[in-house]
């Protein structure tokens, strides 16, 4: 089935609500036949992305919202997550795998998103995240 | 209700403490906080020097959970103790490998291997 479905949900800055949307997206992936491995990766990327939008973007402000849009078909999912924060420059986020950062507790979310999704990009000054995953695609490998 | 406050099962195997995560998903901030406090108290309050963390039940974990594990590793090292992780599923192992934390942590495939020679 190659029908593409689109969804558009706005939630308050509440990670429990974010997890409900995560479950909804996972349901739509499963309905379109995504493999367990792909579902794992997308779910993890969503967790990191939504928590970042709520915590670092909106700084947990209950007056601010996060808008989550996604489109999915049998081979592809694209998710756009927009917060109402000030944005940030992704280049300013240090590489958590550098030796001097390896034992620091933070900074791994974006790296995990990039690894598990096919593409990850920031727009609108950093408060709009667009990421997609082509299913069945292997993650990049060095060898 | 106090149910749900306990996120780790603690067992003693000789002089080694084995802490098994009871959650399938280690995602929720509140749970991660509780897990962190329970882990840290093993070192800071109970003075346990040899600790194995068993991930057999864990199907998902986020970078926030990784942060607590890194802090735990630091606390154990500064107390001159030893920490090993075991029974990490392949999907979850990939999360450690991507972030190169498989190099920071002493990870063993099975609980038996983790207990051996600790």
Architecture overview:
The complex is a heterodimer of chains A (143) and B (118). With 143 residues, chain A is of the alpha+beta class. Chain A has a single domain, classed as Heat Shock Protein 90 (2-Layer Sandwich), CATH 3.30.565.10. Chain A has helices spanning 15-31, 36-57, 109-116; strands spanning 5-12, 65-73, 76-82, 119-123, 128-134. A five-stranded antiparallel sheet of chain A has the order 1-2-3-5-4, with helices on one face. In chain A, a hairpin with a 4-residue loop joins β4 (119-123) and β5 (128-134). The model of chain A has no long low-confidence stretch (mean pLDDT 92). Chain B has helices at 29-44, 63-78, 90-98, 101-104, 111-115; strands at 8-13, 16-21, 25-26, 50-54, 60-61, 82-86, 106-108. Chain B has a single domain, classed as Transcription Regulator spoIIAA. In chain B, a hairpin with a 2-residue loop joins β1 and β2. With 118 residues, chain B is α/β, with parallel strands linked by helices. The N and C termini of chain B lie far apart (37 Å). The model of chain B has no long low-confidence stretch (mean pLDDT 93). In chain B, α1 (29-44) packs parallel to α2 (63-78). At the A-B interface, α1, α2 and α3 of A face α2, α3 and α4 of B.
């Amino acid at each position: 089935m190659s029908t593409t479905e689109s969804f558009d949900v706005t939630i308050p800055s509440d990670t429990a609500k974010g997890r409900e949307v995560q479950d909804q997206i996972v349901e739509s992936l499963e309905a379109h036949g995504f493999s367990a491995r792909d579902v794992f990766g997308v779910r993890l990327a969503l967790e990191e992305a939504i928590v970042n939008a709520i915590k670092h973007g909106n700084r947990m402000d209950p007056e601010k919202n996060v808008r989550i849009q996604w489109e999915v078909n049998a081979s592809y999912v694209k998710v756009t997550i927009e917060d109402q924060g000030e944005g940030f420059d992704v280049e300013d986020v240090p590489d958590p795998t550098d030796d001097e950062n390896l034992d620091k507790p933070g900074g791994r979310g974006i790296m995990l998103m990039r690894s598990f999704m096919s593409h990850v990009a920031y727009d609108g000054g950093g408060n709009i995240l667009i990421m997609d995953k082509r299913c069945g695609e292997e993650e990049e490998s060095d060898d | 209700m106090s149910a749900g406050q306990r996120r780790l099962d603690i067992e003693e195997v000789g002089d080694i403490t084995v802490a098994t995560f009871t959650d399938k998903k280690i995602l929720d901030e509140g749970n991660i906080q509780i897990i962190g406090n329970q882990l840290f108290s093993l070192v800071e309050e109970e003075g346990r020097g040899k600790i194995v963390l068993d991930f057999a039940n864990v199907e998902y974990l986020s970078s926030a959970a990784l942060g607590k594990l890194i802090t735990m590793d630091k606390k154990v090292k500064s107390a001159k103790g030893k920490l090993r992780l075991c029974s990490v599923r392949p999907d979850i192992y990939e999360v450690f490998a991507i972030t190169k934390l498989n190099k920071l942590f002493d990870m063993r495939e099975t609980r038996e291997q983790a207990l051996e020679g600790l």
